[in-house]
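Action item from last meeting closed. Structure (286 res):
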């Protein structure tokens, strides 16, 4: 996986295998552009395929996590950083361009995050609106600073939550609360988001990075094969019938039960010690 300063974000690999994405245009409230989204798609795909990466974390810089699309930058601004993928026209200049732009780029960011087998965390340091909000919702876990505020609020501009926000909110809150949240154009505080089930934890601003690292480290030290299979099974279960979900997890159990991590877990239990998983990632037992 490439690390460094890319278009709109810095990417580093922290021990033990945590890919840390940090949006780095605070003067633009970390607003998104086509170029940033395309580089994110490429970098997230690299993280998925790289065995050195176990967990993925997204966070912002300054007052915002990501305050949505940077419409001015879409037109004429130049954002620094190494470019991972070549330029293409931004689209959105007509109906079919908007459709293609959403399906191919904007929605693809969240699809790529949702498709990660590895666990993902959004450390929401500040404002997370529309694009930034849906990106955070696409992650498996969300930790918010007490200074964070988040929402879609697209109806304030006569627009739609077109990057999957309506689907993600529905899964997290149910139909009635999602209808109320979107139709009333809500932007909520971190504590309100916690009450609604949109975040799992709220911490002081100076504790956010440490809290995200602690959670990521816990996940990174866990049995990666079983965790990735379980993650996919949980998401699948939301869409499957009871019988289908049983068959689906049985097929995955046929893999996890015979993996070296399972043997290590049983040994550690009998020897009354903490399990040391993931030897296979370091060239150990396969």
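Sequence:
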């Amino acid at each position: 996986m490439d690390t460094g300063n890319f278009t709109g974000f810095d990417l580093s690999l922290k021990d033990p295998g945590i890919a840390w994405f940090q949006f780095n245009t605070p003067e633009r409230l970390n607003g998104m552009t086509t170029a940033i989204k395309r580089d994110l798609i490429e970098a997230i795909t690299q993280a998925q395929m790289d065995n050195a990466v176990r967990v993925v974390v997204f966070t912002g810089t300054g007052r915002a996590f990501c305050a949505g699309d940077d419409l001015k930058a879409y037109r004429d601004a130049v954002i620094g950083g190494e470019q991972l993928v070549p330029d293409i026209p931004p689209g959105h200049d007509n109906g079919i361009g908007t459709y293609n732009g959403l399906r191919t780029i904007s929605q693809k960011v969240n699809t790529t995050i949702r498709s990660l087998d590895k666990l993902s965390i959004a450390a929401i340091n500040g404002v997370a609106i529309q694009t930034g909000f849906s990106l955070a919702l696409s992650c498996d876990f969300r930790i918010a600073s007490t200074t964070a505020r988040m929402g879609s609020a697209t109806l304030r501009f006569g627009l739609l939550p077109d990057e999957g926000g309506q689907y993600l909110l529905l899964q997290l809150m149910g139909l009635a609360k999602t209808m109320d949240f979107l139709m009333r154009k809500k932007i909520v505080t971190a504590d309100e988001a916690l009450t609604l089930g949109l975040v799992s934890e709220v911490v002081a601003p100076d504790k956010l990075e440490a809290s995200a690292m602690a959670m990521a480290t816990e996940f990174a030290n866990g049995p990666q094969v079983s965790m990735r299979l379980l993650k996919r099974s949980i998401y699948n279960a939301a869409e499957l019938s009871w019988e289908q979900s049983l068959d689906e997890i049985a097929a995955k159990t046929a893999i996890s039960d015979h993996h070296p991590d399972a043997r290590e877990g049983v040994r550690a239990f009998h020897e009354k010690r903490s399990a040391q998983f993931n030897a296979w990632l370091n060239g150990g037992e396969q």
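Note appended to the action item: The chain is about 45% helix and 15% strand.
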